């Protein structure tokens, strides 16, 4: 079925985090998302069994500098996965180094931030703050900024400029990620397949029997070309991997399902319209 209206979209932290800004952009492109709800951790936003679970969660799928996000791909790639991709958006980070007003770069002894923002900015941080410890927090950039605001000026964080304004922090350096962008997915515990998708995601555990070729050829005949491939070892046997295959093109859901129906190992993990 296509995306219904009134969906609740989960995001990490609060309105000023990187993930929340991507979620806001998702709402602009996909008005079916009626509300954004915030969670302290990414894991909680994707806890589908929780009483307050959202209908979908916004999370980064891949980033310009560091590539695919193994944790998010790990949610959709295993054969027994219960997560689907129902929408996507590309979002620029614009990471800023935030500190208390009056802080100088030489004063900083530690920089905190969430995984995505820190990894995208690490090269700049190591070059310009060689004296500082870099620490990834397990909450969000919101928590890191809060710690800076409560600190003595020796602590800085990586966050959005809006995060700095929220906590009364100064932007000590802007765009320290080198222009990094990320592709964000809306992940859901149930499929919402478009009748005419422009993006198709196929996952499965494939070995040396050639079934992977059947997937690529079958979807090519259905109107979709292979765009990206992500793999992780199954750890069960040699030459066997869990795949996330992304296809782009134009065709019908019926044709996609018919092609994948001939490959038992393949799972249709997403069939949606890209709206950018």
Task: Summarize the structure in short.
The chain has 276 residues and is α/β, with parallel strands linked by helices.
What are the main properties of this structure?
single chain; 276 residues; alpha/beta; D-Maltodextrin-Binding Protein, domain 2; Alpha-Beta Plaits; 3 domains; six-stranded mixed β-sheet; five-stranded mixed β-sheet; 8 helices; 27% helix
> Which geometry do the CA atoms define?
elongated
Q: Let me know the average pLDDT.
A: 94
What is the correct CATH architecture of the largest domain?
3-Layer(aba) Sandwich
Distance between the termini: 21 Å
Helix-strand blueprint:
Layout: E1 7-12, H1 18-29, E2 33-39, H2 42-45, E3 56-63, E4 67-68, H3 70-76, E5 84-92, E6 96-99, E7 110-113, H4 115-128, E8 133-136, H5 141-150, E9 155-159, H6 161-167, E10 170-173, E11 181-188, E12 199-206, H7 211-221, E13 224-233, E14 241-249, H8 253-261, E15 266-272
Parallel strand pairs: 1-2, 1-3, 7-8, 7-9
Antiparallel strand pairs: 3-4, 3-11, 5-11, 6-9, 6-10, 12-14, 12-15, 13-14
Account of the protein in words:
This protein folds into 3 domains: 1-92 and 180-191, Periplasmic binding protein-like II (D-Maltodextrin-Binding Protein, domain 2), CATH 3.40.190.10; 96-179, Periplasmic binding protein-like II (D-Maltodextrin-Binding Protein, domain 2, 3-Layer(aba) Sandwich); 193-276, ACT domain (Alpha-Beta Plaits), CATH 3.30.70. With 276 residues, it is of the alpha/beta class. Strand 3 and strand 4 (67-68) form a beta hairpin. It starts with 6 loop residues before the first strand and ends with a strand. It is built from 8 helices and 15 strands.
């Amino acid at each position: 079925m296509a995306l219904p209206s009134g969906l609740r979209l989960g995001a990490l932290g609060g309105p000023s985090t990187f993930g929340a800004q991507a979620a806001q952009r998702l709402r602009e492109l996909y008005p079916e998302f009626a509300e954004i709800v915030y969670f302290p951790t990414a894991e909680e936003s994707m806890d589908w069994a929780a009483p307050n679970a959202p209908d979908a969660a916004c999370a980064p799928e891949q980033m310009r500098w560091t590539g695919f996000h193994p944790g998010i791909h790990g949610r959709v790639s295993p054969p027994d996965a219960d997560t689907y991709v129902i929408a996507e958006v590309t979002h620029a980070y614009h990471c800023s180094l935030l500190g208390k007003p009056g802080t100088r770069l030489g004063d900083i002894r530690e920089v905190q931030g969430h995984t995505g923002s820190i990894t995208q900015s690490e090269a700049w941080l190591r070059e310009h703050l060689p004296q500082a410890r870099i620490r990834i927090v397990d909450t969000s950039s919101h928590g890191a900024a809060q710690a800076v605001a409560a600190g003595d000026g020796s602590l800085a964080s990586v966050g959005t400029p809006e995060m700095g304004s929220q906590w009364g922090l100064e932007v000590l350096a802007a765009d320290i990620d080198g222009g990094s962008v990320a592709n964000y997915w809306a992940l859901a515990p149930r499929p919402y397949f478009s009748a005419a998708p422009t993006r198709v995601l196929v996952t499965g555990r494939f070995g040396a029997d050639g079934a992977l070729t059947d997937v690529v050829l079958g979807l090519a005949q259905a109107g979709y070309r292979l765009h990206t491939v992500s793999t992780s070892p199954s750890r069960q046997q040699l030459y066997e991997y869990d795949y996330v295959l992304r296809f782009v093109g134009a065709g019908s859901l019926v044709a996609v399902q018919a092609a994948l129906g001939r490959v038992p190992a393949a799972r249709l993990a997403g069939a949606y319209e890209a709206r950018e």
